[in-house]
């Protein structure tokens, strides 16, 4: 055991072993995130036998876990290779290139799990990009960027819903239908206050 500990702590092995640890962390984190989500969503909204529900939960958890593990592996491997090629120096664009390639390979397949992950990340980067001008001192008013960002997001989604709603996700379309269009219709006090239709 001491020999293994010495081996994994040698500085010359760190970059390569970080790839292995990244795979492990991606797999564990993917399972930690997806299992509770899949459990709740499947039990609340999916029909079928207990065995069918369990299969859906496990399949979603395995796919999420596998995708994150392999993405981290590809990303860290490409970062390592680019740094090696560049004489041991990491360049600013290396992370973008590694993320771009890994994202295409791992998350490029259009399925429910990948859509959820990509949309989650997209939402977070858009918020991050709205903060970037303040961080880089391009804008002095930190409280102004989020309201502008929120206004643009809501302006675009309402415009898309009104004019090209089929490009929006079905769940978003259904929510917006309920909120903005179904609220235009009623015929009795019952379907005005207690029931939608």
TrEMBL record:
Keyword Ligase: no
InterPro entries per record: Pmp4
Pfam families on file: Tim17 (PF02466)
Transmembrane segments: 146-162
UniProt keywords, alphabetically: Membrane, Transmembrane, Transmembrane helix
This protein's record includes keyword Glycoprotein: no
Signal sequence extent: none
Any one Gene Ontology cellular component term annotated for this protein: peroxisomal membrane
PANTHER family: PEROXISOMAL MEMBRANE PROTEIN 4
Protein name: Peroxisomal membrane protein 4
Organism whose genome encodes this protein: Gigaspora rosea
């Amino acid at each position: 055991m001491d020999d293994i500990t010495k081996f994994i702590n040698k500085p010359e092995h760190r970059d390569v072993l970080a790839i292995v640890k990244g795979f492990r962390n991606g797999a564990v984190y993917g399972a930690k995130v997806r299992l509770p989500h899949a459990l709740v969503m499947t039990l609340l909204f999916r029909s079928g036998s207990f065995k069918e529900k369990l299969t859906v939960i496990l399949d979603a958890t395995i796919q999420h876990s596998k995708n994150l593990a392999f993405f981290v592996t590809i990303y860290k491997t490409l970062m390592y290779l680019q740094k090696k090629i560049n004489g041991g120096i990491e360049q600013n664009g290396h992370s973008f290139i590694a993320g771009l390639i890994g994202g295409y390979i791992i998350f490029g397949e259009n399925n429910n799990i990948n859509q959820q992950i990509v949309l989650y990340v997209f939402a977070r980067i858009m918020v991050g990009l709205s903060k970037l001008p303040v961080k880089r001192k391009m804008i002095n008013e930190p409280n102004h960027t989020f309201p502008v960002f929120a206004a643009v997001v809501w302006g675009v989604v309402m415009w898309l819903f009104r004019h090209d709603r089929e490009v929006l996700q079905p769940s978003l379309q259904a929510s917006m239908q309920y909120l903005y269009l179904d609220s235009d219709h009623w015929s009795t006090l019952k379907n005005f206050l207690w029931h939608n239709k």
